[in-house]
Amino acid sequence: MDGNLTLHLANFSTLFVCMVLKFPQIFVLMRARATAGVSLNSLLLELLGFIVFMSYQMYYDYPPLTYLEYPILIAQDVIVLLLILHYNRNMKHSLIYAALFVGGWQLLTVQNVIYIYIYIYIHLDKKVFFFAIVSQSLCTFISAGSKLAQLQCLWRSKDSGQVSALTWALATYTCLARIFTTVITTGDTQVLIRFVVMSILNMWVTVTVVYYKPHAVKQD
């Protein structure tokens, strides 16, 4: 009973946190009307990683509570993307990104993934789950790449003025919570590896953001 209660708390707290996870970043961008320190490449890779990961979870028919936050995160990332393009005066690129987003989503729908599995099974004589393992590993690399892109941006600019440390701290919590829920519900090793890697990298980004935060200089 206590285990189920803890699991429900972890699931719903993760869902609640994800509902507002990007809000601090959105508010920072809107207030500053600038994007210093925020990596566009990191955001695009994160979006791609979310899409691949959610498709993987849906294919295996995992409990919806284990991935329900991803549509919410994708929607918030799209808002952040539009703000970055707007403040960088690159709104004309929004149509290109929208087309890539929709195309990528269609490519990675469950139905298409099933077709790919069947093709591999028939023509390459491989086990069906081979593609799933590869896709999940690819998802981990993509998501890790998004964090490293943000770190590289911070190291290069040495300025995290418009990067929200709170957003990254909340992301760290959600990954840690998902390690617990994955162990209890599915025990999927690939998913566990992803969340462990993401937890470490999110903590690294959080610390880096705090380190490079500009400090106000007192004037006499």
Automatic annotation (TrEMBL):
It is a multi-pass membrane protein. The keyword Transcription regulation does not apply. GO terms for cellular component: membrane. Pfam families: PQ-loop. It is found in: Membrane. The chain crosses the membrane at residues 12-30, 42-59, 65-85, 97-122, 128-145, 165-185, 191-212. The keyword Ligase does not apply. Keywords: Membrane, Transmembrane, Transmembrane helix. PANTHER family: MANNOSE-P-DOLICHOL UTILIZATION DEFECT 1 LEC35 -RELATED, SOLUTE CARRIER FAMILY 66 MEMBER 3. This is PQ-loop repeat-containing protein 3-like. The gene is LOC107706924.
